[in-house]
């Protein structure tokens, strides 16, 4: 069958396209690297979801190479050696199944960072080719279709909104938020109520949150979490216009004489090569893998890889700057029953320093440490770099679990795009299918750490005022691997940019890239909401393009 | 764990009987050494169950044959047991106090410290993973620590589809 649209991947950058185009009557096919799961298959199994490569490839089979700067030299390490896993979810819906769903919009100035703050030496900051106002209707659409719950907090950097409320009321909160709010008031901070892509009320076939206590890193069993799978692909399947091929690893896009993509070649789980033809191809495999596929698809007409006449594919890769910290609360703060009350959310953030007059700041999200008892107990076996065991370890586990709870904070600040953060492929390193793997050079700009440190002082100040104990934090130039963007910048200059303002290749008109790859700068928030919104915007364009 | 206990366990456990080649090639001595060390690493206390009480060895043996088990970890666990036994051949015959002292001294050796650290990790896995994996007997790990687990619980191991 010749499809109208072939989508590679099924995460946040793919779901809105599948949803919109299938509802518009287009014949759509998704090629998903992983398997298809439904809510009934999911459970709160710490082993399967966080301790074994069940929903990601085994690193011994499929890996990345990571380049880090050590003593002035870039050193390349395969991830099967350092266990730094850059796969974030190979299943229908991709990593959106496992997100925590902290949903923050970008703000108008995020779209024109260079104009507002000027150039940063050593950083390749660029304004976006679109403005916030162009994306706002699609942020709004995501609130309604994917489902966002919360309460709008008025604050200094509040972005303009076309509605004055989220479509779903806030989720239930743990009493610790009273301490948070009081401390904010005392310190003259704004206690920001974090919107979540988690339903607090039913929506169609999706049930509301049931406060399972195991949320972030776990797929949702009620459909409350706004994963691409639950919120977009399942309704798209209901149109009858969407077909999904699971366990289909796309290894090459082939072009024809008209310099359009003609077919996607994919490997089945068994390694058999197959192909899909379509009029239009949408690449949404997450930033690193999308660049890898374009680079691996080089041919005589496109010797540097597809969509790469600019030489910019893979360049200016983005993660999120910042780090995390924590403070401990115990039975001196709350009764044991209240302290250990499971399931309830914190849903608080600080955004007062998202912008400062002198520099771009960022966001601080607060959340309880994930419940995962294996991870938690295992962290207790070290004291002053010495291994403890026996009665001492058992007592420590018991005391920690029964009398304490940790409030974490996560800092998000802009990852400064720079020449030493990119994706390339290396013919020397190939996966089990003999396909060159993605090499990721991770070079951080000093500003990333400086801003992270600045924001950490604010979080620490708050935790101290709340009376938290054992407060600590770590800001690192090494990123979290699950927040990926950049690599295929959009912009108006075909000589500099991979994609045009509609995320369409400047070189190949029937090729779009709709995961986070398009972002010239990432802002200081988790990317998912913006990827969703942009994909809805691109879908609107593609509908007209195909028409 | 004494050899006869291990043999009895092997004879009665369908999971152990169905171990794949990888696990079958592991000498039983290694598991015996591991079991005797686990009992000291996580002993029974006033509030907490022992490694044996939560079926830690059974958990490790049965899950080490899974395709998802880290091959490097398995190699470390088995080789480490051999190195430990060579260095402390009388460990299993010592009393609890002496065993604790031996493990204390073992932590001074980088390799054995790494081995013990991994062994603690997998014993903790046995204590807090869902009982479907063969450990956490009667949910003792969870109930002892007042831990509320998430729901739904897994009906199949390793995320297999229903």
List keywords for this structure.
heterodimer, A: 547 residues, alpha+beta, FAD/NAD(P)-binding domain, 7-stranded mixed beta sheet, B: 162 residues, mainly alpha, 9 helices, disordered N terminus
Notes on the structure:
The complex is a heterodimer of chains A (547) and B (162). By secondary structure, chain A is an alpha+beta fold. Chain A contains 13 helices and 21 strands. Chain A has one domain: FAD/NAD(P)-binding domain, CATH 3.50.50.60. In chain A, the strands form five sheets. In chain A, strands 1, 2, 6, 7, 8, 9 and 21 form a seven-stranded mixed β-sheet that branches. Chain A has a six-stranded antiparallel β-sheet with strand order 5-12-13-16-11-19. In chain A, strands 4-3-18-17 form a four-stranded mixed β-sheet. In chain A, a hairpin with a 2-residue loop joins strand 14 and strand 15. The radius of gyration of chain A is 23 Å and the shape is globular. In chain A, 53% of the residues are buried. Chain B has one domain (3-159). Chain B is built from nine helices and no strands. Chain B has helices at 3-12, 14-17, 21-24, 28-41, 56-63, 71-87, 96-106, 110-128, 140-144. Chains A and B meet through helix 2, helix 10, strand 15 and helix 11 of A and helix 8 and helix 9 of B.
Summarize the structure.
The complex is a heterodimer of chains A (547) and B (162). Helices cover 25% and strands 23% of the residues of chain A.
